[in-house]
Amino acid sequence: MKNQLNETLKRSIEEPDEFWKEQASKLEWNAVPKDILTEENGHSVWFRDGKINLSEQALDIHVRNGSGDRVAMIYDSPVTGTVTKYTYRELLDKVARFAGVLKAQGVEKGDRVIIYMPMIPEAAIAMLGCVRIGAVHSVVFGGFAAHELAVRIDDCQPKVLITASGGIEVDKKIHYIPIVEEAIKQSVYPPHSVIVKQRLQFDTVLPGGWLDFESAVTDADPVDAIPVESVHPSYILYTSGTTGKPKGIVRDTGGYATALRFSMEYIYGVSPGEVFWAASDVGWVVGHSYIVYAPLITGCTTIIYEGKPVRTPDAGAFWRVVEEHGVHVMFTAPTAIRAMRREDPEGSLIRERQLKSLRTQFLAGERCDTPTLLWLRDQLGVPVIDHWWQTETGWPIVATCMGEDHPKERAGAAGKAVPGYAIEIVDESGKEVQVGTEGYVVIRQPLPPGNLLTIWNNPERFKAGYLERFPGYYFSGDGGVIDDDGYITITGRVDDVINVAGHRLSTAEMEEVVATHSGIVECAVVGITDQLKGQVPIALIVTTSGVGEEIEKEVNQLVRNTIGAIATLKKVYRVKRLPKTRSGKILRNVLRDVLNGREPRIPSTIEDITVVDELKEEL
Ligand code: COA
Ligand code: AMP
């Protein structure tokens, strides 16, 4: 590691056992761990003999400690005109009863439960109800179509599926019941029961045998939290990889709670009783960690926001929430800021609000361009902090830590290594590169607590994807560069994963869907730079003869129907040929270069170089 280590980072790397034992002691364990760090197949396992329960940490403990009347969660929904507040005591009651509903459905420790819900309080109640009894939840983002839901159902084989009548987007309602019915029809291992939160905005007719969320909760007896082993999986969260099949990231329990508690104070600089708002969705890792678990474990007030940065009703939406609820620290994706800047470039809607509570604004989920960051900093007059992490890690890897004595952010970089992470930038052969040279971002083992345990049902993919490429290190899949002062800039994925409006999507998966169209001979999907969304997918298709231009619409519809509207193709180009190597591999880098207006880097293995000129004319 060439970057300068501050004392905390240094200690966390040199004495990880001691460091994390101290952090873990801030939680109330049911069995205090003695076995702090062990290794299993080259990967770190934390607090093996400890026992703890996430729901108890998030709720019961605060009620027991006299904070039962503090507001735990605010549901703020501009799309329905609702603001509802839940104290810790009220939330605990709902969660304990919902755990009772799950028990009554035969859900036992270790059973999986899928949660396919919009941004409503019942999504968090369902998550906390699951972990209360040791059930493993898998939240599926409400923007995914039936096929994606079916793939996840079959991979984790849930006993119960929890859903709602639907979600409300800016200008339309998304009816979930037909999507869930279709997903169940497509799946080989359907859930035994389905529980539905019926919403006033929908006329819901429950299919036979499906249960109503509210009446089930009212009828249920509350259930106490059961202590589970620290390494017991708390959840599976599917994320996009480099193949067509999403991978189920498995999170532990005790390590996760320890890391989240640490991150709230050390990275976000938040104290118990303060208001922390992550404007994301429970379907993503940000929602798991920083809408639900971390703020509640820390005793903060969290916000479930059912709305957008713009159009609900305008580009001042976020600042209304900050003012009304006295948000101290906020977190969102750069795309959201770009969207509001486009509509309110002078920031007049920001100045209409009293934002004196706001101390820090965090951004993550995709690379933040410097003009966006500087614009927001000028508008808000508070530190705007870019930071880098992934579904796999569950909490930040690189950041400017606001809990440090003299935090100093640097626009353009994602910050410095967070305590626990020994980061190196290496070349193809695994050798550390010179400061200032771009390379692969890797993390030396052991990874700190909270990071993924494995991939559900697929330990081989876990090893092959993350551990074997650079032995002794975790491979992040991102490229980056470090400077003399230890600031790290993340330059983007080095694989076929793209990031669209902060949503991680696989171009390989889109290609598989596009290829199912009968008029297509071969295709490629690549990401190109987009001013608003960071990246957007583009499809290049070679069609069978006689196919008309209607195929462009059909292909896009196919992707929207199979994956979801968030994967909408920006454009479908019909081309004569795709550039390939002599062994028949499509040269996606060449396509990316041509589409992004760069001079293409043509490898010597190219089969026919004239294809590139042909493409330049066609695109
Ligand atoms: N359920 C159902 N559909 C959804 C959805 C959800 N939860 N979220 C998005 N969609 C749909 C949209 O309705 C839209 O459908 P359409 O093509 O039929 O109109 C499509 O998916 C694309 O949506 P989106 O990517 O949100 O683009 P947009 O142009 O509607 O909005 C932004 C642009 C910038 C306002 C929006 O992308 C945004 O809020 N981004 C921030 C994302 C974020 O916070 N990510 C968190 C990661 S940490
Ligand atoms: P996800 O797992 O959905 O959170 O997506 C993680 C990926 O998003 C990372 O591997 C990066 O490619 C990208 N990403 C997240 N945060 C940042 C950031 N601050 N800067 C650059 N890229 C980021």
TrEMBL record:
Annotated InterPro entries: ACAS_N, AMP-bd_C, AMP-bd_C_sf, AMP-binding_CS, AMP-dep_synth/lig_dom, ANL_N_sf
A Pfam family of this chain: AMP-binding
Recorded superkingdom: Bacteria
Domain AMP-dependent synthetase/ligase: from-to ranges: 66-446
Acetyl-coenzyme A synthetase N-terminal domain span: 7-58
Domain AMP-binding enzyme C-terminal: 509-585
Family membership noted in the UniProt record: Belongs to the ATP-dependent AMP-binding enzyme family.
Protein name: Propionyl-CoA synthetase
Species per Swiss-Prot/TrEMBL record: Wandonia haliotis
Organism classification: Bacteria, Pseudomonadati, Bacteroidota, Flavobacteriia, Flavobacteriales
